[in-house]
Amino acid sequence: MIRFLLLGTGSADLYPSPWCACDYCARAREQEPYEFRGFSCALLYPDVLIDCPPDLPHLAFRAGVELYKVNHLLITHSHHDHFSPQVLLLRRSVIWAQKGTIPESLFVPQLTSLTVYGNGPVTDQCRNFLKEEASKWDLKIDVKRLKPFEPVSLDARTVCHPLLAAHRTAFSSEECFLYVLERDGKTILYAADTGWLPEATWEYLRQFSLDLVVVDATYGMAPATDAHLNISEACRLRATFLNNGLMKEDSLFVLTHLSPHWTPPHRLLAPALEKEGVMAGRDGLWLTIGDRPNS
């Protein structure tokens, strides 16, 4: 059984937006915390994390997962809501505890190594972050640059395929990644922050039969753009996957990266999407590929 956790499912606005008084944001506040969405990130349990937003520790606390088990951190792109290297400074607490005076009865395990994977802007940012202070090298962080369509074995069970997203904006022209993860014969596509997929990505995906797809639907009921999908385009993406044999009829298809200004609250959104065979992602949602039901 493979377990995949949606830690955060919101857009760069968060959900509700802390500075917004629109109707959707107001409704979400009335139903907190179920309606709250943190910045989008996910965990292939227990050891492969996708994206490192500034609220990652809080999202992990809420979901009841341990980040110290993570050995691999895959970053989709360098935008602030997907990569905040300052969060990695919290690894220092282990080092300080080992070097400091603590009760003899308290055992502090060694800090496990962490490899950060990403495109050029991500790896440059991470290396610059580590160089700011010499002590940061104690954080046991390695950095590895990925190239699109060149798979990497993370461990004996897991292969990562970085694919190109369609996410060029007025503020950035970097090549952003989607990730296909293969583990124990199961295949997952995580595709936050993308418009309609580039042709090269479509061609690469033809080799897979996806068991789980998690996909961007930032603009909800509003028109999609070249940088983000909406609900309608996400549903069209699912139909295209099915028609081309890229996923099975019973494969899970889940929406993430949802903005409050175009997307109804979860309690209204989820029932409508179920009729289309689509799940509305929410923070803390466990998705299983195997014998147990999803929760």
Topology:
Elements: E1 2-8, H1 23-30, E2 41-44, E3 48-50, H2 56-63, E4 72-74, H3 92-99, E5 114-118, H4 120-131, E6 141-145, E7 152-153, E8 158-164, E9 177-183, E10 186-191, H5 199-205, E11 210-216, H6 231-243, E12 247-256, H7 266-274, E13 279-280, E14 285-289
Parallel strand pairs: 3-4, 4-5, 5-6, 10-11, 11-12, 12-13
Antiparallel strand pairs: 1-2, 1-14, 2-3, 7-8, 8-9, 9-10
Give a written overview of the molecule.
22% of the residues lie in helices and 25% in strands. The longest helix is centred in the last third of the chain and has 13 residues. The strands form 2 sheets. The protein has a 7-stranded mixed β-sheet. Strands 7-8-9-10-11-12-13 form a 7-stranded mixed β-sheet. The mean pLDDT is 92. The protein is an alpha/beta fold. It has 7 helices and 14 strands. Helix 6 links the parallel strand 11 and strand 12. The protein has a single domain, classed as Ribonuclease Z/Hydroxyacylglutathione hydrolase-like (Metallo-beta-lactamase, Chain A, 4-Layer Sandwich), CATH 3.60.15.
Summarize the structure.
With 295 residues, the chain is an alpha/beta fold.
